[in-house]
Design brief:
Layout lengths: L1 H11 L8 H4 L10 H4 L3 H17 L1 E4 L7 H14 L4 E5 L4 H6 L17 E4 L9 E2 L2 E2 L10 E5 L17 H11 L5 E5 L9 H11 L14 H16 L8 H8 L1 H10 E2 L3 H8 L9 E2 L3 E5 L10 H10 L16 H8 L1 E2 L6 E2 L1 H22 L1 H31 L18 E2 L5 E2 L5 H23 L7 H15 L9 E4 L3 H19 L3 E4 L6 E2 L8 H8 L18 E4 L14 E4 L6 H8 L11 E9 L3 H12 L5 E3 L5 E3 L11 H13 L19 H11 L4 H7 L4 E5 L12 E8 L2 H5 L10 E10 L5 E5 L4 H12 L7 H11 L6 H24 L20 E9 L17 E4 L11
Parallel strand pairs: 1-7, 1-8, 2-3, 2-6, 6-7, 9-20, 10-20, 15-18, 15-19, 16-18, 19-20, 23-27
Antiparallel strand pairs: 4-5, 11-12, 13-14, 16-17, 21-22, 23-28, 24-25, 24-27, 25-26
Helix pairs in contact: 1-24, 4-5, 9-10, 13-15, 15-16, 16-17, 22-23
């Protein structure tokens, strides 16, 4: 343990006051006495300290902790800190999460933080598109936008795209930047998102722009001359990594390719921890174990118990035959008038890269509607019928409007050639919704033919769907069986709670109507419906229908319901849409059913995150997925045929349309990539950070190691003890527990460049210069020299292993010492360690030379010099840890009074190894 602390001290001691928690969190504010601070786990308190430090130093921070780790409570503690400093705070939230944030500032018995008297303002993301009206108790017409000292953006990935402004308008992104961040007082920005990087690395750049107020050179003094260039280079390297053969496409390779600048950028501005990360760095003594995830149960349901409804394949063929002409009037504009409508409705793409025509937008909408029809068929036949009915009604209305307009046309003067859209005389002849088209400009015969064809096909589909009443609904019957099986045989003693998620509100309402009475009479449980549209309800007598009341009755333990409200009773079956798939603590529950599979696997993981959380009272939790009754490969191909070569529209949580350029190699939009994700979800519950085979942000930051050192330095006499330790300390460690392939026998060196080119030409962008961590194996590589397990470019991974070796081992292990002494003849024969040291130095020099040579072909010149090569004498060994192979435990080795590490005296100059 001491050696680990010593290495951290060498690496980070120059940060000085950056490690001083008292400087960061001033005790005079009283934050440590707050209710929210006392509810935080240590890893959450560390995040709060780290985030406040970044807010003060750089003006902003992104907390990117994974689902279920408590980002909201971390943010509330940060808010409380700034409120104690009399700062004004604004929280921007997705509309569906507003109630969640509102509770924590309310004078409400159900508010577990009522004692803190939080008083921040809350606005919805969508309020940034409004000029007037009320948002809660805030009058949008008179908001002093520039008077906020801190802005907290929940689900900040909704602002990852700088959307093109609509004609004459301003986007939410632009308004947030202009009116809140750049105007008035200096505004710090805290962003919360489990997925700050979604489709592209540039997603992160657009969020970082809020921190830097759009200044590309804002981090120059921290070694990043251009944020934009750094991210663009990283994206380029990521795209190249995607083209590698699968065997070479490893996270390690990606880390090497991304470069140090991207690493430095993330380390400066983000805090990110995963579930695995928390278990690795903080253990489970305080938090307890996460519940065990059982293998998902996969159910493939038919549509019709009587097997008379057409197959999904046949339904898909009918969907593809639909023209959906009512939604695309511009498609029928006469050729002579197409240029006029292009000029009137087209959108200029950012940077003058081209024109996005409204007719293309309509085609994209039609393709999206086809996908929507198919997804509703997969969800429930009831939802499918509802959608068909709406579309059929719309077609009939358009045909009726067309007939009325034709009558108007016959009554008007025949000379209408020069009629324009804005001419008052044109009003009776306009058809369409937001996009208006003059009847005189349409091929009216062809449009009517396609509308009537749609009417006939929709009516046929609707008649078939209406035949499937609840008594014939096979999927509903399978859901009843799944619920009953879980309730009859609870996963955890006494736990009868279960959540059913669906993507569609009409499916949710249908399930509630069909299940609530059955569940009460047959199973003795009460049911609630949550759709986020004002139609929430339950069959628990006397329970109010607001979101907070329903969720508190469903998860009273997680939401700390006051004892005097226990008389409200409990809900055990919750049917919900994705309005509660984020930001809600529902870990009282131990089973979650996806009644329909969301096309984006991220949403499925977010749903499961409601019950897969810290503080769960359950030892195991279950995911149950309903799939279309066909092979996944066929399902993916079916989706592809429905989508076709469409213009992809990313419907973000803000409800705005975002044109995505589908670049080659964008794996997030690749159907093969989706196929792999969905295949994984059939076998296991995957973590959000595991969706990509690349790296998570948690792999790229050193914040936790700095926090480790900061905690150590607060202990009396710690600095003096570390300063008194000699340079060149050598420790011996044997991996604990089962065999660990990531800790092969070898040596971990902490080197410091002392002289010559090793010191004067540090690696460009390398964040730990002049220190280098290298892990060298005792096994020889292809060149006959000891192989490098982890080069200095992967310091994070090396520190991971070092911590795993050392933490919790406070006493030397006599057995480990004896083994090492026997091998080295009491330290007289250090040839093996010396060879490994030489390999470590060579690895540092070799990598630097490789990058130096690469700079010959880059703009800005080269840093290659004739004296570039450094040797052993240019480096000092500050400390090293020899990793021994595991052996069968002996009585001495298993002595609980001794740990499996040993510390030897420094490597001496007489041994001809650099001190």
């Amino acid at each position: 343990m001491t050696t680990y602390q010593l290495i951290l001290y060498h690496l980070f001691k120059e940060l000085g006051e950056e490690l001083d928690e008292e400087r960061i969190i001033k005790s005079g504010t009283g934050i440590r006495n707050s209710r929210v601070w006392q509810k935080l786990y240590k890893f959450q308190r560390d995040a709060v300290v780290g985030a406040i430090d970044k807010l003060e130093r750089h003006g902003g921070c992104i907390i990117a902790d994974s689902v279920g780790l408590g980002k909201t409570f971390e943010a509330l503690a940060i808010i409380k800190y700034y409120e104690l400093r009399n700062d004004r705070v604004l929280v921007l939230v997705p509309k569906r999460l507003r109630d969640n944030w509102s509770l924590y500032k309310a004078n409400d018995r159900r508010n577990m933080l009522a004692d803190d008297r939080l008083h921040y303002d809350i606005l919805n993301h969508t309020d940034l598109s409004r000029e007037a009206g009320q948002s809660g108790d805030i009058d949008l017409a008179n908001v002093n936008w520039g008077n906020y000292d801190l802005v907290v953006i929940d689900e900040s990935h909704n602002f990852r795209n700088k959307k093109n402004p609509k004609q004459g308008g301003e986007t939410r992104y632009d308004r947030l930047m202009r009116q809140i961040i750049k105007s008035g007082v200096k505004t710090r920005v805290l962003m919360l998102s489990a997925t700050p990087v979604n489709n592209r690395l540039t997603d992160l750049r657009n969020q970082i722009a809020f921190i830097t107020e759009g200044q590309d050179d804002a981090l120059t003094e921290h070694g990043i001359s251009s944020i934009d260039a750094t991210v663009r280079h990283a994206q380029k390297q990521f795209n190249q990594w995607l083209t590698l053969e699968e065997v070479a496409r490893t996270p390690t390779k990606l880390l090497e390719m991304l470069g140090f600048d991207y690493f430095r950028l993330l380390d400066r501005l983000t805090i990110a921890r995963s579930r695995k990360h928390i278990e690795k760095y903080y253990g489970i003594a305080e938090t307890g174990r996460f519940p065990e995830r059982l293998k998902p149960i996969n159910i493939k349901s038919d549509v019709d118990l009587e097997q008379r409804f057409p197959s999904i394949r046949d339904i898909n063929r009918e969907i593809l035959r639909l023209n959906l002409a009512a939604y695309a009037p511009l498609k029928y504009v006469l050729p002579a008038r197409q240029t006029y409508y292009d000029q009137h409705y087209s959108t200029q793409l950012r940077g003058g890269r081209g024109i996005f025509k409204q007719v293309d937008r309509e085609e994209g909408l039609i393709q999206l509607m086809r996908v929507n029809l198919l997804k509703r068929m997969e969800s429930s036949v009831s939802s499918f019928a509802s959608t068909l009915r709406r579309q059929l009604d719309n077609v009939n209305q358009v045909l009726e409007r067309l007939d009325m307009a034709l009558e108007e046309l016959e009554e008007l003067a025949p000379d209408l050639e020069d009629l324009q859209l804005d001419d008052p005389a044109a009003e009776p002849l306009l058809v369409g919704g937001k996009v208006k088209v003059l009847l005189t400009d349409l091929d009216r015969v062809r449009w009517r033919q396609d509308l009537e064809e749609d009417r006939n096909r929709l009516a046929t589909l609707l008649a078939a769907a209406d035949d499937i009443d609840p008594t014939r609904d096979a999927k509903l019957a399978d859901l009843r069986d799944a619920i009953e099986a879980k309730l009859r045989e609870p996963l955890n003693p006494g736990n009868r709670k279960i959540i059913v998620f669906t993507a569609f509100a009409d499916t949710a309402r249908y399930l509630y109507d069909e299940l609530q009475q059955w569940a009460a009479e047959e199973l003795g449980v009460r049911t609630a419906l949550v759709t986020g549209t004002g139609s929430n309800r339950s069959n628990l007598p006397g329970l109010r229908s607001d979101l907070t009341s329903i969720l508190t009755a469903f998860a009273p333990r997680a939401r700390e319901r006051p004892a005097d409200l226990a008389s409200e009773g409990d809900l055990d079956l919750l049917i919900a849409t994705d309005c509660i798939s984020e930001g809600q603590n529902l870990q009282d529950c131990d089973a979650l059913i996806n009644f329909d599979i969301h096309w984006n696997p991220v949403r499925i993981i977010q749903r499961f995150g409601r019950i897969d959380r810290l503080g769960s009272p359950n030892t195991k939790i279950q995911l149950i997925n309903f799939w279309p009754n066909m092979q996944l490969e066929e399902y993916i191909n079916l989706e592809q045929r429905v989508s076709g070569r469409m213009v992809l529209l990313d419907i973000s949580a803000t409800g705005e349309e975002n044109l995505i350029e589908v670049a080659a190699g964008d794996q997030m939009n690749d159907l093969e990539y989706r196929r792999q994700q969905l295949l994984q979800l059939q076998e296991t519950v995957i973590d959000l950070e595991d969706l990509s085979s690349g790296l998570s942000i948690a792999d790229l930051t050193l914040n936790d190691f700095r926090m480790d050192l900061a905690g150590l330095l607060r202990q009396p006499g710690a600095v003096e003890q570390l300063e008194s330790m000699p340079v060149g300390v050598l420790a011996v460690a044997t991996p604990a527990g089962p065999a660990d392939a990531t800790l092969p026998p070898g040596t971990i060196f902490c080197l410091r460049a002392e002289s010559g080119t090793a010191r004067t030409t540090p690696e460009p962008g390398y964040p730990l210069a002049p220190h280098y961590l290298v892990y060298v194996s005792q096994e020889a590589g292809p060149d006959g020299h000891p192989a490098v397990v982890l080069p200095y470019s992967q310091a994070k991974q090396t520190l991971d292993r070092l911590k795993r070796l050392c933490v919790g081992r406070d006493l030397p292990d006599a057995v480990a010492c004896a083994r090492f002494d026997a091998t080295t003849r009491q330290g007289q024969d250090m040839d093996t360690v010396r060879e490994q040291l030489a390999a470590a130095v060579a690895a540092v020099n070799g990598r630097k030379q490789e990058r130096a040579m690469a700079s010959l072909f880059q703009a800005g010149g080269t840093h290659v010099r004739k004296d570039e090569v450094a040797g052993l004498n240019d480096f000092e060994v500050l400390a090293c840890v020899v990793v021994l192979a595991q052996t069968v435990p002996t009585a001495a080795a298993s002595n609980p009074s001794a740990a499996t590490s040993a510390v030897h005296t420094p490597i001496t100059e007489q041994e001809e190894v650099a001190p």
